[in-house]
Amino acid sequence: MEDFLELTVSATASGCIYALMALSYLIVLRPTSIINFAIGEWAATGAFVGVGVLTTLLWPRLDAPYPVAVAIVLVVLGLLGWAVERLTVRPLVKRGAPVTSPILALLGVLVIFRETLTLLFGADPFPSPPPLGYRRLEIGPFAGAPQQFFIIAVTLTIFAGVWYFFERTVWGRAFEAVAINRRAAALMGINLGRVTALAFAAGAAVAGMAGLLISPLTSAHYMMGLPLAIQGFTALVIGGVGRVEGALLGGLILAFAEQLGARYLPIPSGLTLAFPFSLLILFLLLRPTGLIAPREVR
Amino acid sequence: MSGPPLIRVSGLSKRFGGLTAVEDLSFDVGHGEILAVIGPNGAGKTTTFNLITGMLTPTTGQIELDGQRIDGLPVHRIAALGMLRTFQHNMPFAGMSLTDNVMIGAHRRFSASVVDILLQRSHVLAEEKQTRARAAELIDFVGLGHHLHADVTTLSFGEGRLLEIARALAGDPRVILLDEPAAGLTASEVKRLSTLIRTIAANGVSVLLIEHDMHFLMPLAERIVVLNFGRKIGEGTSQEIAANTAVVEAYLGSSINQLGQGGAHA
Amino acid sequence: MIRTFIWIAAIIAASAIAFVLGGYATDVYRKMLIWIALALSYNFLFGTAGQVAFSHFAFAGVGAYGVVILSTKLGLPFGIAFIGAMALCALIAFIVAVPSTRLEGFYLALATLAFAQLFTVLINEGGDLTGGTGGIAGYSLPSIFGLQLRGPWYTVVLVLLVAGTLLLLNRLDNSSFGRACRAIRENPAVAAAMGINVRRTKVITFTLTSTLAGLAGIAYAYTDNVINPPVFGLENVFLLLFMIIVGGMGRPLGAVVGAILLYLAPFFLEPIVGHGYLVIFGILVVLAILYQPAGLAGLIDRGLGLLRPRSQS
To answer: Is the pTM of this model over 0.80?
Structure first.
């Protein structure tokens, strides 16, 4: 039982990271129909920026406090997302290119980001200092690393914020309107370009946060991006691409399936890597709309 | 009209959620007949075309082609039976040449299987050559001959309409469905189009037509079906429909007049 | 007639190179030929038919692992192992294609990506059968009908692989089938209204091109007589995709030019910029999509057009 409770904490924490990646996809996908595989590299960039600011990696006297690092990651990634949209996506959308064009261009962007990280930081992982230290934390019956609790708390805050944005603010409504019908939204006076740019900036910021949050557990590493990107869209497909809650649910289901399978199923540990892919295939085939269906078009 | 009809639509309905787009619609189309479907915007004309061609599945009702039920068949099967259409908005295949665009319409007439193609059996090349030659003829026939090497995305709207017709004709259709073929054409192009449609019908091909331009339609259509709110509110020869304008107006308000004017200046 | 002559001349010329080269250059030349073969079949799938699939190298892996396992681990004669590996590719491709071509647009990419990753996990964890992370080595191509295909003669086999792939795909491309593929790429709904069976065409295309990838994989297995998992992973699929985008989507010429350029470029770029050449590839891809969607093949066309005397148009 104790074992199970500990697993619950660690699975919830991983699930939260997957959920943030899924959320990053969703924020871009809803208004633009673009699946942005580059977000994995944006998470890695977030991790490196965070480590750079928190330690003396970039500058001998930096050692900034954690909130400053969070702010810098959000701003830097937001700007990067905005710049990528401006430079690669907008010209294609303006030209009326098919939706695969920006998706493929973003694969190019993925490689540019990853290889730039490799050039800057090399192939060695960089440890990232956790904001709450290393002492094992117990909350009621649950126990785990403080970073795991921190991840859960921050993720829930982000999801609450994004949910509020979509459900309660004018800008969020604009996003939804664009998601449902681009042409009609444009006729209603919504600036499509601005919505798209904001989606990329916000998506990049969320991905960057996911990278920063997971870096104390995995270290910042140039190869961390692609697995996160894949786990993120697996979570997205499981939860459904229509709703913010779906991303959270999908992330949690994926993480629990992974960790329960690794813990209790009598198969070699390497094969548990096959779990998310099998789950992804299963969902694509049996329930391509995901668990939480999108709202009916009104 | 003599003999059994080529198309028989009976009791056709289509509901989208709570919205009824087409309700209890029945009509026949004879061999080589030109039948027009008219009505105000949102009357269910394009939905009817989509139902007949299988792009939508009817909620209730039957559609027969030459005595064979085709409702519920997949789109490509219905097209393969010789029912080809044009679209309300031009839908060229952007990354392909004009000739290839037209040749796609002839897809149903190819007999070569993938294995034949891979082994390059003799009839494969012959078929290809024949179809290519015929596509060139059709491009001339509709009047796009001088655009043979143009990028299809650079065609004018009117030329795009003609490409749509050539593409549908390439398949030697038994029925051709034209969704607003005259929209956006110049007066001389409209005239050409009338001649074209008469020639098509004279060759025994049935023509189903959605059109708003009454000046174009009235002398051309042999019979007219009038739709409003998805229901048939009138049917007859174009003379009968023209004579009964008063009756139609009672149902449609002034929309027929509006339509006529709308078509005239378009 | 003239075309047949040109084909044969090209094959002889490409084969003759094999006898001139030696040592490391031979190795580079062989790998390049395999990349070209893979790029050609991937171009048909992705460029011509518009199916964004990430499984092409996984199918090369099915071919390579299939033939080696069947012939060395199960001790089957090479001919049977070869046919068995090809059949396995076709079967798995068909099983993957039937459900995933039902999915709309980019979901095919997700499904094939999951399949490719699954394949990598399985060959890494296959124990004795697949040799795990180390792969399988120490086997060699047995003599076929008393012929020992070694040295430059094996390179000739690879030239024939490229020629055969090109010939088959050209036939498809210039037929009603190839036209149907392109129509589906542009607009599946309109293609169906013209009588094209969209799903059937997609399944055939996926199965056929994936089996051709398997064939190239079999050829690869006997190039170094070593196979291991990283070769068949996602990284190489990305490179393949980039070759097609830079070369020109939907054009065999583009596939060949793109494959040669991106395969050879690192040999020249690495001494200058080290690993940075991948950044250059990424930038090339973005630039190609933004400013030159017809790729290098489009540039070549334009160049030839300038050379040709202007006709009235």
So the answer is: yes
